[in-house]
Amino acid sequence: MARPKRRRRVTNPPHFKGFRPIGLAEEKNPIILNFEEYEAIRLSDFELYGQLEASQIMEVSRPTYTRIYESARRKIAQAFVEGRTIVFEGGKVYFDSEWHSCRACGCFFTHPAKDQEIQYCALCGSTDIQEISENSPETAEEDRCTCPQCGYEKEHTPGVPCKTEICPKCNIQMMRKGSPHHNRMRNNNRLKNI
Amino acid sequence: MKVAITSTGNSHESTLDSRFGRCSFFVVYDTESQSTEFIPNPNKDNVEGAGPASVQLVASRGVNKVISGEFGTKVKSIFDSLQIQLVVLNEPEKKINEIIDLLNHKN
């Protein structure tokens, strides 16, 4: 049995169903363009990412990305030349959604229906919401240990886990700056302070 | 619209269960008819795959929104492709009827 396909990550699915040529009768068997193929065209030719970067965004290998992109271009070319309808459908994908937080009730929520704008908190209906970026710019910095309580920082010593370091001021365990754990703690603290 | 809430017990006085896949009960609340249904979680003691199995259970009830304390890593992508909204609430002491009141605030 062949190895199952990896699920491709699609961040921006199309908000319409497909394309139809002008001046031709409606066609019975349209060309099916998978969501992953749509996403490949979007990343490469609209966002102008390189194939390596785009493959990392879709969470597939670079050669696989090239195959998806190639197949997408061939399908679109076929549809153009033969005047066929294009329908977006299927593909082994998942739609990734961003997390948002509500400042009124302190909850976090996703927003899977991308074609609708987010206006209200999913739980309490408050309009005081904000998007959380998991890769905040601070994570790009060099390795540093930080104290979750007072924010004290020190250079990370390779081979010594940050959690074994003790903050000299608060006397508690430190953690790696910008780690998912630290980001979550920081988001929680931010909400508490509001 | 139907909302699933993870619960530690089968009454309105029970508190929110902080785990999704291995919670004790799912409360399915219908915002239109204001009715609630308590479903015991059959995947509670699964060694593996409790999250995806619970997603199947919740999705089969036609739920649009799931409220829990935390979701595992395997679960989010499945919910995203099913177009089900996730809500994470970091308040394990909150009671089920308090959460339902919060939800009704909107309508």
**Residue share in helices of chain B?**
25-40%
Distance N to C terminus of chain A: 55 Å
Tell me, what's the shape of chain A?
elongated
Report the major sheet of chain B.
5 strands, mixed
CATH topology of chain B: Nucleotidyltransferase, domain 5
Low-pLDDT windows of residues of chain B: none
Strands of chain B, count: 5
Tell me, rounded to a whole number, the average pLDDT of chain B: 84
- Cα distance spanning the termini of chain B: 11 Å
Q: CATH superfamily name of chain B?
A: Dinitrogenase iron-molybdenum cofactor biosynthesis domain
Number of discrete domains of chain B: 1
For the largest beta sheet of chain A, what order do the strands appear in spatially?
A: 2-4-3
CATH architecture of chain B: 2-Layer Sandwich
Radius of gyration of chain B: 12 Å
Beta-sheet strand percentage of chain B? 15-25%
SSE order of chain A, one letter for each helix or strand: EEEHHHEEEEEEEEH
CATH level 1 name of chain B: Alpha Beta
- Order of the strands making up the biggest sheet of chain B: 3-2-1-4-5
H/E element order of chain B: EEEHEHEH
Structure description:
- The complex is a heterodimer of chains A (194) and B (107).
- Chain A folds into three domains: 8-95, no CATH class; 97-132; 138-194, no CATH class.
- Chain A is elongated, with a radius of gyration of 23 Å.
- In chain A, helix 1 (35-46) packs antiparallel against helix 2, helix 1 (35-46) crosses helix 3 (62-82) and helix 2 (51-58) packs across helix 3 (62-82).
- Chain A has a three-stranded mixed beta sheet. Chain A has a three-stranded antiparallel beta sheet with strand order 7-6-8, with no helix packed on it. Chain A has a three-stranded antiparallel beta sheet with strand order 10-9-11, with no helix packed on it.
- Chain A has helices at residues 35-46, 51-58, 62-82, 180-193; strands spanning 8-10, 18-19, 31-33, 86-88, 93-95, 99-102, 108-110, 129-131, 144-146, 153-155, 175-176.
- Chain A has 194 residues and is α+β, with helices and mostly antiparallel strands.
- Chain B starts with a strand and ends with a helix.
- The longest helix of chain B has 11 residues, at 50-60.
- The mean pLDDT of chain B is 84.
- Chain B is α/β, with parallel strands linked by helices.
- Chain B has a five-stranded mixed beta sheet, sandwiched between helices.
- Chain B has one domain: Nucleotidyltransferase, domain 5 (2-Layer Sandwich).
- Chain B has three helices and five strands; from the N terminus they run E-E-E-H-E-H-E-H.
- Chain A binds chain B through residues 7, 9, 93-97, 99, 105-113, 120, 122-125, 188, and chain B through 65, 67, 76-91, 99, 102-103, 105-107.
- Strand 7 of chain A pairs antiparallel with strand 5 of chain B.
